[in-house]
């Protein structure tokens, strides 16, 4: 870095970088944003995985309490943890697959077992139902946001990501 006598050298900050704002070069590209639909759907599925883990804990804790279970009784603690654990893992895996062609369909299909968990823990009908509504809203709202972003990028190509 050469400096002329009329311009003093920029003093490095305490982090070792030159002080002052960093401005992008004219050739720098704007980083494209991730699709909102995929972000919303992934977040919903991850939150559902936590919900299933907590519902599994409830089912395990209430397994010996009379009149506290739903219409379906799992025979043992092992089966409770197996069903809840598999469902939670499936939800986590699907949260990473929502960007693939079948990811949204699989995410929609997995809403059925989340609701069916209400047969073991009755409150899951309510909470699982709220998450099904959240899933539908995240798919619809995320798609609308992505369409609006695409329309804006088409109208303003100079600010669009990866514009030449």
Automatic annotation (TrEMBL):
Chain positions covered by the region annotation Disordered: 1-34
Low complexity biased stretches: 1-13
Membrane-spanning segments: 40-62, 74-94, 114-137
Domain of life: Bacteria
Alphabetically ordered keywords of this record: Membrane, Transmembrane, Transmembrane helix
Family annotation (Pfam families): DUF4233
Protein name as catalogued: DUF4233 domain-containing protein
Record organism: Cellulosimicrobium cellulans (Arthrobacter luteus)
């Amino acid at each position: 870095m050469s400096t002329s006598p009329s311009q003093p050298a920029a003093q490095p900050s305490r982090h070792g970088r030159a002080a002052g704002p960093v401005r992008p070069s004219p050739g720098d590209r704007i980083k494209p944003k991730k699709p909102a639909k995929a972000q919303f759907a992934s977040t919903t599925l991850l939150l559902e995985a936590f919900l299933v883990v907590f519902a599994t804990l409830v089912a395990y804790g209430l397994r010996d309490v009379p009149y506290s279970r739903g219409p379906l009784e799992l025979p043992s603690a092992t089966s409770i943890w197996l069903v809840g654990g598999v469902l939670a893992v499936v939800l986590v895996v699907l949260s990473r697959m929502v960007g693939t062609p079948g990811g949204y369909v699989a995410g929609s299909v997995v809403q059925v077992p989340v609701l069916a968990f209400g047969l073991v823990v009755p409150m899951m009908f309510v909470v699982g139902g709220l998450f099904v509504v959240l899933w539908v809203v995240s798919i619809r709202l995320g798609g609308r946001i992505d369409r609006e972003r695409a329309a804006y990028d088409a109208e303003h190509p100079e600010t669009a990501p990866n514009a030449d």
